[in-house]
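We now fix the convention by which a protein and its fold are recorded. Think of the row as the fold of the chain written in a discrete alphabet. Here is one such record, which you should read through line by line.
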Amino acid sequence: MKKVILFSAIALAAAVSCTKSEVVDTKFNEQIGFETYLGRDAQTKAAVVTTDDLTQVFVYGYYTGTEKWSAESQANLWSPMTLACDKGACTVAKEDVRYWANDSDLYTFLAYAPATVENVLTVAAENGKNPTLTYNVPSTLTDQKDVLYAVPQKDRTKGENGTVALEMKHALARLTVKAKVNAETPFAYNVKSVAISGNFNTTGTLVLAEQADAAVWTATPAAATYTFYTNNAAATDEAATPLTTAGVDYAGTDNYLMMIPTDFSAEGAEAAKLTVVYSTYAGGIESRDYTKEFEVATEFEAGKAYAISLEFIQAENNEIKFSVNVTDWGTETTTTISPAN
């Protein structure tokens, strides 16, 4: 029984502390409004969160008057404003409403999502310092987050309608693993587990004001293993899910690996390792478990979605066949053997 697996990594075009509140004197009493959207790239690159899905965003604001915003000399940092968003249209929480002073004064806005999550996603900011976002990648995929940031809106004036458009970007890389058989086959290929391991960036920090089209992380690598799928059922069990030509995506709807960008293709870098355990079943016989390992020497970039495609190849003439031939007895020969002393 011949079993062959083809492996490929396909980069899919991607689509993701308390502060002192300062009061700004208002001249026109016109509320600062916001709208959010995910940039063109993110929307067309199979993003986990889309503009329609984004329901809550948090915005830091700075009022600098006639002075341009500066990372070294920030002033009037507002506590994060909470925006409730519906398909890109956002409403500022009542207690967070701010107002434009006049047509020419300058404001800077920085934003992120989702809300902070204990031991996973934290944000720190204080007057005179850039707000920073820290992400600790959970070991379980379902606990991971699609972290978003806004392209900084620096030195903004009120403009025509007093609304600030926040272009949100995906700060992480997204990975899934897919598997299928290439043709109808009498063999039931039963995948038991799929996991990836390597020296991933497991903790990283973003300085919100320094981000642009692609997130720039200050990250710390560590050995980690992420499991996409586990099912120890034997191929003969009802719980087994033999592969088909349609295939299966092990990410499902909430099982993507959302990683801080990591480059496994760089010179001197050790490739990540994908480990697949599977068995086969045919003719009433289940094979032993097979373990296959593949190197993943890919650069996983922020804001892009990736898929590793596993294809179990069934050759056209892969059926086990037999031929039987009976030879003549021939002349009987007697051989005498004496036991050794």
